[in-house]
Amino acid sequence: MERISRDDLIRSFLNFYADTGPPENTPPAFRHAAYYAEPEMDSEMKARLRRFEKLRQEVDARSLESLPEPLSPELKLDYADELNPRQLLAATTTEGPLLVLAGAGSGKTRTLIYRLSYLLEKGVAPERILLLTFTRKASAEMLLRARLLLQSERAEKVMGGTFHSVASHLLRRYAKLLDLDPHFSIIDTVDSEDIIDLIRQELKFDKKSRAFPKKSRIQELISRSRNCQMALADVIARDYTGLEDYLEELQTLETVYHEYKRRHSLLDYDDLLIQVDQQLRANPTFKRSVQNLFDYVMVDEYQDTNLVQKSFADQLCERHKNLMVVGDDAQSIYGFRGAELENILLFPESWPTCKIVRLEQNYRSTQPLLDFSNDLLKQARLGYPKKLFSLRTAGVAPVICRHYSAEDEAIWVVDRVLELREQGLELKDMAVLYRSGFHSGFIQTELLRRSIPYVVYGGIRFIERRHVKDLVALARLLLNPYDAIAWHRILKLIPGVGQVTARKIIEGIRTHQGQFVLNGMSQKKFAPALLELQASLEQGRQQLSVAEQLGTLQNYYTPLLKQVESDWKTRTPDLDILLQLAQKYKKLETFLSDFALDPPSQKYQDGTTPMIDEREERPLVLSTVHSAKGLEWSAVFVPHLLDGLLPSARSLKRLDELEEERRLFYVACTRAKEYLYLSYPAWHQNYDAVFTQVSRFIQVYAEP
Q1: Is 48 in the active site?
Q2: pTM
Q3: Secondary structure string (H, E, C) spanning 458-518
Q4: At 386, is the secondary structure helix, strand, or coil?
Q5: Are 517 and 508 in contact (CB under 8 A)?
Q6: Mean pLDDT score of the chain, rounded to an integer?
Q7: Is 207 known to be catalytic?
Q8: Quick check: is 11 catalytic?
Q9: Is the pLDDT assigned to residue 382 strictly greater than 90?
Q10: 235, 264, 677, 680 - which has most CB atoms within 10 Å?
């Protein structure tokens, strides 16, 4: 009997049911493209929808239509000429709570900069203004542009930074008031995972007959519990049902983890915000002191805030109520990190006197592309109404194309890339955006086959490289001698020092109030190495500048690096970069805080062949949609648009998760300035399903 290939079987199936539709008992993955199961809604979700709908209807009533006050003729900047009418309203409405719904590409950063300038021109002291962003780079660029606008250095005195960096500043500034060691160490996610792994081994949870969850999953679970302000058991019941059998052990691990950090003066990212938030609630003196620092607070990317960040901002502004938040509910795509869409949706409920400004003029895309994006939003069940428009009325509509296989789709995408390149568009002005990394596999293969250079967002971040973390751990010991996780990292580099010995050394340091004592180990082979480490740390503490401190530690560390890494020569330039960064700092604690909270930007991971020609053209970008948020390209390709891939199959049971997938697709489409290419194969198979339906988000546009 002749064997029928899988491809031929699926092709026959698709052709047979192209017009008539499948029988009733056909699995959902094979049903006709017109059928899409909608998520079931419980009473809680229905109540939420009614609540949102009420607020949606209030948008027009709360929307500002005229300036709160006439602009003074003595202002240095011509705000009315530099901003469109809606931007002008947002920039000059400074008193009371204000929600700015800034559509994609509508100039929200420009609006924030001019608002900051307007406050300074009105005579507000720069120290009384707080700008909260999600990256230090964003706040630094805004303050710099405000300074250039006004030709004044006053803008540099504005307090600007991330939620975490501002929280860190407040904790160190008021440490005595909070009964906190001001020299606490800030640990990153990898450090948190290492502590969890250490505790897991101590409690022998890794020795059980069943496979205990990995350290990264446990850290993620604990972090989500805290950011969503939910008990660990509730988070597991909602998002991690596969871990229910481990609940008791995980609760024990969580408790010990927090106690470990407390004993060793360590704070993780979540601790910074949670401690400030809790102290604002429980410590009236601290609350008064912090609230008296600022008269105006501005929050960027408000749709990405979690519950703790919302509470932090609310409490800062409880006295003066001058809170301005800027964001786009249609670009809220970080629910998996704890971002809470309801923060922006329910802002008018939290602040009943708030006014609303909608920024809808788009400066990025052509109108045909915006028409498509606007249609996507019309179908959304959660979110505020908005209709983006552009003065660039000419342009081409999105191209949507169906292909037989993923291989055919990849060939089509690369053909279009080369066509655009021949028309004069550079590779760097094009991007392929996808829901998950595996969606790019065939496209990467085709690019390699044709020797087309590309880069993929990802790779090991600078801060996560082993040798960089080692040197930073040494620097942390200068500041906090109780930092057990840094001690563990460094002691493991010394031959002969195992986990048991390291634990004894660390306990001895704690017993002797941070002093390094050998405790009867003077006869051990590794004793001279320990004494050398002690001497290097002492020498480092005596240096006057941060760069000199790190230089001393590098001199100690480099011989160790030579012993443990054969490619140590290729790693040492990274240590030189670290020293260059340190030269900008006057205090070690500031350097370590900035480095932990906002490390040097993530590098591209270059998975390419040699460049096309000797000009070394900058390559095509391949990226997940999540990593592409905030960026833009002339041409954008979004492949693998099958239901179950985008939207993800895991999102189809809950309306809020399905709506986040819609917003994710919206973000992908609004990255394009001139060309948007959407494609999908006729089928895709993974380990447990076959997907054949076109994504519900483009079903009305797709080929029959």
Answers
A1: no
A2: 0.76
A3: CCCCHHHCHHHHHHHHHHHHHHCCCCHHHHHHHHCCCCCCCHHHHHHHHHHHHHCCCCCCC
A4: coil
A5: yes
A6: 81
A7: no
A8: no
A9: no
A10: 680
